[in-house]
Amino acid sequence: MQQATFDSRGSHIRWTEVPGADPARVYLHGLGSMSAVYHAHIAARPGLAGRRSLFEDLPGHGTSDRPADFGYTLEEHADAVAVALDAAGVTGAELIAHSMGGAVAIVLAHRRPGLVSRLVLTEANLDAFPPSTAASSGIAAHEEDEFVEREHARVLAAVGPLWAATMRLADPRALHRSAVGLRKGSDPVMRTLLEGLTVDRVFLQGEHSGELAGRERLEAAGVRVVTVPGAGHNVMFDNPDAFAAAVAGTD
């Protein structure tokens, strides 16, 4: 495991790494998740093995530190990932990013374009104020102390055992602030940033999640949108073959 300091108080963002050829692939997880749990089984596939791979845990999640005075906005998450990539000597990376991690990846590509050569986004959040059915909206609907003291346990029970297995490792306050930051979105909003980027961009949408809003506009901006059959939000679990093919660029 490796680490880098991402704030003035010595807090660390941590990642595990598989050595290999450049450009590196950097895997970013979603809200309440961990990168290795969601992506290591994909990176180990024969068509993807041999490439340097980093599994980053965002601040407040997994193995990374969870400072109480950190804001956990999309911009702050992106800057922390940039610190890790700088420390690892990574430039021109392919970012494979899921859900909230996709929003972070878009912001990172905008703020530090030299770090990113390609984006593979899985059901990334593109707009502020997601629908009330989204988990982030449900978390952010509560005041922070109310969520930490009373609602956190209820959310863990409601999301089911698979997501709860990683969500319980996230700091409750960091989880809430990350959800609030995700609901607020970036400025300009993530969708606008994504449309303006010039790197190779792929967006994976699970078939069971329904049609991607604004698909035609994204495609007109050069984003390749792929509907993955038999998959919901967690495409890497529901259809790992299609997911791996998209990461490898052979789909």
TrEMBL record:
Record domain AB hydrolase-1: where: 26-137
GO molecular function: 2-hydroxymuconate-semialdehyde hydrolase activity
Coiled coil feature spans: none
A family per Pfam: Abhydrolase_1
Enzyme Commission number(s) of this protein: 3.7.1.9
Keywords: Hydrolase
Protein name, per record: 2-hydroxymuconate semialdehyde hydrolase
Species this protein is from: Streptomyces cyanogenus
Gene label: xylF3
